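Quick one: C-alpha cells for this chain, please?
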Amino acid sequence: MAVTDYIVPASHEFAANFLFDEYGLNPFFAADRRVKEGSGSQRSVFTDQGGEWTVTLYYQPSNIVYPGERLPSGTAWRLDEVREFRMTIARHGEEDPVGEQSFNAHLAPRWPGMEAESDDGTTHQISVPDGLEEAVNVHVQGSNIEFDRYRRLLQKAASAVDIRSEYFEELHEFSNVQDAERYVRVNRDDSGPVHARDGPIASMGHLLEHDRQGYRKVVQDDEDGHGNTLPGYYHTVTLGPRRIREAFPTHALPKEVKHYYAREAGNLPDDSPLAHPKVGVSYQVSRWDETLGASPESLERLERELDQTLLSVLADAGLDIAPERGNGPFVDDAYFETERTEKGPDPVSLDLTRIRSSQESVVIRHLADGLSPIQWESLQTLVTDGGEVSPTDIATEHGRHVGSVRRALREIDDLVEREYGQVSLRSSYIAELVHDAVEEAREATRRAVEAGSKALEAAERGLGDQMSVFVAWAAKHGVDIDDALSRREARMMLRFGEPGREARRAVREGFRIWKAADLPPERFRTARIRFNDGSAASAWRYLEPG
C-alpha cells in the first residue's frame, strides 16, 4: 500500500435544491398526470450500480396561490388546484436492512411573481431567480448516499414512474447545496484524543475562533440523554469561512467538526457498530453569505474540503488514517467500510501547537515591551465586557479621547481586531491570556498596596527597618506574617505563583531579609513552599546553590 492510501470517509447527510428550467413546467405537469393516473400515487423499482431501489411518487397540498388561467409568461394553467409532489427513493429493503439509505425529492413549480399563503391568510411573494421564466425546484434530502449519485437516482426514479428523465438533466446555475456531511466510525477505545479537552475539536474552537464577533459554537456534552455519562457523546466545533482558513488556507466552506454517539450507544455491546462513535465534518450553509452550487465541480470541491478536514482532525488526534493491516482504529458499519484510496486529498497538518505558541508569543511580546495606559484600559474593557465594544465605549469608560483610543489599538493590532466600528480580541485563547495578564496586574497592584501598608504597620509597631522590609516581602508573596513570626504551626508555609527561576530568586531574597531581621534561619529553611499549580517543595531546596 502506498503511503498516500488514506481512509475513505462515507457520505452521511445531504440536502440540496436542484433547479431545472430547460423544460419549463413540463416536469410538474407530468408528475400531476402520473399521480392522477395512479389514483394518488405511483410505485416502481429500478436498478443503479447493480443495486435495486424503490420509488414512490405522491402529492401533497400546496400553499402556492392559484395563478389563474395563465401564468405571467402566457403558459396556460389547466389544473384546478396547485399541488406539490414528492418522490421517496430508497434502497430496496432486502439490500438495506438498516433502512437508512434513502432520500426524499420535493418537486415544486417556479414562475416570476408567484405567491404563497400563510396560515393567517396573508400572502407573500416566493423568491425566484432573476431571468427565470418557468422551472421546477426539486429539494432533495437524504442520507448515506454519495453526493454525486442523487441527481442520477432522481432521473432513474422519475423514469421508473414514467416521467421523462431528461427533465432532470441540466441544472440551473442557481441550484445549491444546503447540507452535507462525511464521516468515519472510530473505535471508542481510540477516539478519546479527538474529543479530549486539548484535542483538535476543542483546540480549533479555542484558538481559531474570534472572542466575541461572528458565530462561535463549541459544544462538549458528555450526557447521553438517558442520565448516563458517556465521554465524547456530542462534541462539536463550528467555524466560519474566515476561521476555517486559518487552519486550512485553501478552504472557504464553513464547517462543523463533530464527535458523536448514537443515543443508545451506552447500552450496546462492543461488537455493535453503533457502540462506537462517528467523527464527521459537515457543511454549514447558514454560517456564510455565499452559496455552494450543485454542479459536479461544486460537489467535488465539497467532498474534497470535508474529507481533508476530517482526515486532518483524525491525524492531529494521532489516529492512523492509513492503516496497513486490518481496520486500524476504524469500525465498519452498514454504510462506512474501511477502504483506502490514493485519490483522496492529503491531510493538512493543523499544527495547532504552532498557532497556540504564536498567539502566546504575541501576548508575551506586548507585555514585555510594555503597554501604554490606554492600551491596558482597552484590554481591561475587552476581557470584562461580554457585549459589543467600540473605541467610543472604551474612551467613555476611561475618560479618554476616542482618537487616542484608536491610535492605541492600532499599535496592538495583532492582539485585537477592529471591524465595522467594533473591537474584539483575536481569539478566545488570546482573550484568556490577556485576562490572566490583566488579573495578574490587578493582583500585583493589590499586593504592592498591601505590602506598603504592612510595612507602615510594622514601623508603627516599633519594629526595625529590616522587619518592616520582611513584612512587605511577606505581603507581596502571600506569606502569613503571624505564622511566620510565631510557632503556632510546626512548619511555616510560603506561597508563590509558579515554580521556577523567579520563585528561587524570591525565596533567597526573603531568606536574606529574614536573617537580617534576626529571625531564626532554621525556621525559614524548613518552611514549606506551595505553588499555584498545586506542587510543593521545602524552602532549603531553593536556598541551595544551582
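The chain has four domains: 1-6+178-347, 23-169, 352-434, 463-543.
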